[in-house]
Amino acid sequence: MSDLRAVLVDDEQLARDELGYLLGQVGGIQVIGEAGNGLEALTTIDRLQPDVVFLDVQMPGLTGFEVARRLIEGNKPCSHIIFVTAFDHHAIEAFEVNAVDYLLKPVDPGRLEMAVERARQRMSRAADSTEGTAVAGAPSLAGAVSDDQIEKIVRLVSERQSRREQIAVKVDERFLLVRAEEIIYASTTEEGISVVTAQYAGASNYRTLDELHARLDPGVFWRVHRSHLVNINKIKEIVPWFSRNYILRMKDAKATEIPVSRTQTKRLREYLKL
């Protein structure tokens, strides 16, 4: 059987590199292209026509679901889609666009292998089918969520609820266990991911903010900027900035100022009724 041709779509290069490495371990799949945002994903997929697309959900510009729906509405031969994301609360939307699978970050190698096998099986069924005029392999909007899909959603949520409430933070040569609610903010630095609490500042063992975010409550920890993740309960002050943007002054000892991206400014205004 020939290798599956894949395109990886994620706004973080490290996340794409990690997924590419894991796919190399699975074998039988060739990464033929990458994209860092939704618009770039559409042009890359249209140009390369891959068999399968590993698609992040939250990206600048178009979300992963908007990309999937545009592919469907484009009425062109479509790739099979596997969503890879840090957030399980999007699971039902993934099934609405008939995704092959839905993987949570950090990606488990065993689950990734299962997802690749499902893509192979779906391609095989599509190739064997001669019914109707639909393009083989094209995803379609599902009319309802099946019992199997509901069971998968329940499992995803259960996995989320079972995750550790403590995060390991390296301070000097020690690893300290920090409760999630003690984290004030986390940021991407040249050395990796920095985590700050009222007492400590150290390095996380997670490689990307997406991976760290997956271990935290998305209702409390917001990705206000591609380089910053904040605990909204630890915001001391919101400072108006130019172009109607904001800077968050946090409750750490240094009163660190963290910028809010344009895409997150609207969410912040709605949440705080600004």
For this entry, what is the oligomeric state of its chains? single chain
CATH superfamily heading of the largest domain: Response regulator
N→C terminal distance: 57 Å
Secondary-structure element order, N to C:
EHEHEHEHEHHEEEEEHEEEEEH
Main-sheet strand order equals 7-6-10-9-8-12-11
Task: Give the overall shape.
Answer: globular
| Highest-level CATH class of the largest domain | Alpha Beta
User: What fold name stands as the CATH topology of the largest domain?
Assistant: Rossmann fold
Query: How many individual domains?
Result: 2
Helix content: 25-40%
Q: Spans of 5+ residues with little confidence (pLDDT < 50)?
A: 130-147
Biggest sheet character: 7 strands, antiparallel
**In total, how many beta strands?**
15
Describe this structure as you would to a colleague.
The protein folds into two domains: 158 residues, 3-Layer(aba) Sandwich (Rossmann fold); 107 residues, LytTr DNA-binding domain (OB fold (Dihydrolipoamide Acetyltransferase, E2P)), CATH 2.40.50.1020. The protein has eight helices and 15 strands. It has a seven-stranded antiparallel sheet. A five-stranded parallel sheet has the order 2-1-3-4-5, with helices on both faces. Strand 14 and strand 15 form a beta hairpin. Helix 1 crosses helix 5 and helix 2 crosses helix 3. The protein is globular and about 65 Å long.
